[in-house]
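Duplicate of earlier report; Elongation of fatty acids protein 3-like protein input re-posted below.
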Amino acid sequence: MIQTLCYYLSEHPLIVGFRWKHSQSWGNTWVFLFTSIAAYVIFSVFLHLFLLLLFRHRRPLPLGPIPAVHSLSMALISFTIFAGILLSAAAEIRDTRWFWRRYKTTPFQWLLCFPLGTRPSGRVFFWSYIFYLSRFLHTFRTFFTIIRRRKLSFFQLFNHSILIFMSFLWLEFSQSFQVLAIILTTSIYSVVYGYRFWTAVGLPSKCFHFVNHCQVVLLGCNVVCHVGVLLLHFLKGGCNGIGAWVLNSVLNGAILFLFLNFYVKLHLEKRKIGVTKGSETLDSVKDKDN
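Output:
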């Protein structure tokens, strides 16, 4: 059974023979990229305004089991991509070890820094392509938030759009660091969406912001890895797709800034609520004493 799973996740001819080409891969043109992102943003804004006008004084619309099904699907998809790219990376390391010894490159360095001239083909780029397609399914959470909470978040729109854009850049320019980024992201997303499914079906949730803490861990790991890519680029004579990596780093920095701003505001509001409740409790005790 394990051998069968390894075959279908890393040795299948469709995976081994994958090529990122306009004639073979769906959604791999710049026109499709910008059109899909624009359609996502426009539809989200339209849905938000439409619901505000139509259901201004009504409660949020119930979605039933749809969010739970979406969370379970995303958890399974993320775990499949995680297992697939992990096995595919191990297979690539096994098949090209002789090449790395010649250029004094270690497997960990390859995960951070592709050699110059790397083309988007083979096992790891197949799973990078599947990861890129899964980003479109990820955007459905925006629609769930709008329908259930009547809330449209700029950070959510920006974050989802940038994730799609960066995933496209990884494939288009054979960008370095993408294998490790996908491994980290899908491992965290498997846990996050599993937790969301857990709470969506009515099971008890933790008192702290579990999802936010997971995102902090992911962003922190990305920052450390980006520093490693920069060091290897200057020490090893260059990494493939470094121009796209620079743009990727700028966009990641913007996401990190927006998220930390949201994270700090969330904790300040929580602390303010705690102080308010504490003062109210103290006042009630004083009233009883009087």
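The chain has a mean pLDDT of 82.

Merging into the original ticket.
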